[in-house]
Design goal:
By secondary structure, the protein is mainly α. It contains 10 helices and 7 strands. Its main location: cytoplasm.
């Protein structure tokens, strides 16, 4: 029991402090989700250990029978995961410099700012390209679709992850009557890049409540995926 308490105490010390003790330069890191490494978005806290994560980031852990905290690996009751209101309040109170243009931005708006910051986009474009760790005769992948970030089909705003795309479209294009192609669907192996949704907002809210990365193996084709799913279904029954 003493060791268990020691582990919990040690893990809690790694949580963001109550105030900006490290100055503006360290605020973004202090209020970043340990899973996605971005500033918290709709943060939730685990009751037993107190660790905080983006609500969406923690969702896969809540789908298993005996969830463990992704940070300290201690078991927790999924019914005792609550909205981290105190963290949301701090996100709306504190400002930190953008990692690209150095402009001070409220932490709660940092994700939106970064998605449109030209300096950040330039930094991302200059990131080292993929190279194998060891020599290989296999070709280096050059045409892998980007399934992590998307562009708004209405206004072209770029580098939006799935959650940010939903939020952006709901806030900025709720009344837009145009029929547009869903950038998430069109990036998938089975996607039709010419299909335009009659009601794109409803499509986003109902079709894309989860990330395909959690369930899909992109390395196999549709027929192989079907056979794998069928085999799994038969083994469970």
């Amino acid at each position: 029991m003493a060791m268990f308490r020691s582990l919990v105490a040690s893990a809690q010390q790694r949580q963001p402090p109550a105030g900006p003790a490290s100055g503006d330069s360290g605020l973004e890191a202090q209020f970043s989700c340990p899973i996605c490494l971005e500033v918290y978005y709709r943060p939730v806290a685990i009751g037993s250990c107190g660790h905080t994560f983006c609500g969406e980031c923690l969702q896969p852990c809540l789908q298993v029978p005996s969830p463990l905290c992704p940070l300290c690996r201690l078991p927790f009751d999924p019914k005792k995961v609550d909205k981290a209101s105190h963290v949301e309040k701090q996100l709306s109170s504190y400002k930190a410099p953008c990692r690209g243009c150095n402009k001070k931005v409220t932490l709660g708006k940092m994700r939106v700012h970064i998605s449109s910051c030209l300096k950040v986009q330039e930094q991302m474009a200059n990131c080292p390209k993929f190279v194998p760790v060891l020599p290989t005769s296999q070709p280096i992948p050059s045409n892998i679709p980007n399934r992590s970030t998307f562009a708004c089909p209405y206004c072209g705003a770029r580098n939006l992850d799935q959650q940010e795309l939903v939020k952006h479209c709901v806030e900025s294009h709720r009344s837009d009557p145009n029929r547009v192609v869903c950038p998430i669907c069109s990036a998938m192996p089975w996607g039709d890049p010419s299909y335009k949704s009659a009601n794109f907002l409803q499509h986003l809210l109902h079709r894309h409540k989860f990330s395909y990365d959690t369930f899909v193996d992109y390395s196999i084709d549709e027929e192989a995926a079907f056979q794998a799913a069928l085999a799994l279904s038969l083994s469970e029954n």
